[in-house]
Fold this sequence. Notes:
Elements: H1 11-19, E1 25-29, E2 32-37, H2 42-51, E3 59-67, E4 115-123, E5 128-135, E6 143-145, H3 154-165, E7 168-170, E8 199-204, E9 209-214
Parallel strand pairs: 2-5, 6-7
Antiparallel strand pairs: 1-2, 3-4, 4-5, 8-9
Amino acid sequence: MTVQQKLNPTLQPAVEAVLGSLLVNATQALDELTIEVLAEHWLAAAKLLAQSPLTAFDQCVDLCGVDYLEYGQSEWAGEETVSFSGYGRGVEPASSARLKFGESLDLGATTRPRFVVVAHLLSYTHNWRLRVHVACPDVNAPMVPSVAQVWPTVNWFEREAFDLFGILFDDHPDMRRILTDYGFVGHPFRKDFPLIGHVEVRYDPEKNRVVYEPVSIEPRVLVPRVYRHDSRYLGQGGK
Length: 239
C-alpha cells in the first residue's frame, strides 16, 4: 500500500519567488504542482530551479514529449453508439493515425500548442517534486533549449523525445536517435504517424540481408464496445 504525499504549501511560493517573471502559470491538482514556462526561458528557468537554495531541484527524473494533435477527440461518439450487438471503430476513422498514407484528417482550428516538453524535477533537499510544461512555439520545427548542461542525465531523455516526437533540443551535445533503427523515417509517437508504419522488414534469402519494403497491410481497428449480459458488469454500465 502506498501513501500519496501531500503537496507542501511552501513549494509554490518558493518556485514563484525563484522564477519571478519567467513563470507563466502554476496549477495545483491532485496534490501536484505544475508550472509553465516559455521555451525561450526554459534554460534560464532550469538553472534557477536547480541552483537556488530556495528550490534546489537537484535532479530531473524524467523528461518527455507530448503531442496534443486531436486532443479531446474521441473515436467513441458516445452512449448512443453503444448497442447489444456491438460497435466497431474501424468504419469511420477518427484518428489520423489510422488513415492510409497520403490521406489527411480535418482537425479544425485549435489554439493549443501541438508539441509540449514535460519535465519532472526532484529536490532531495526539500523532498519536493515539480512538473514543468514547456510548449514548442513552432509546430513545423518544434524546438526548445537543451537542459543537459543543468541535469546531465537529461541527455538521454531529450534524445528519446527527439526520436519519438521529433522535438529538437537546441545546443544538445549529441542529438541522435536512441530507440529506433538507423534508417527509420518519421517519429512513431506523433499522433499522425500511421499505426501500421510506413515500411515493413523481412529477411531476403536471395540478397542474404534484411530488406525494407512499403507496408503491405491495410489499417483496421476491430475493437467492439458492447454491453455485456454478465453479473460482473452490473453497476458499471452493464444491463
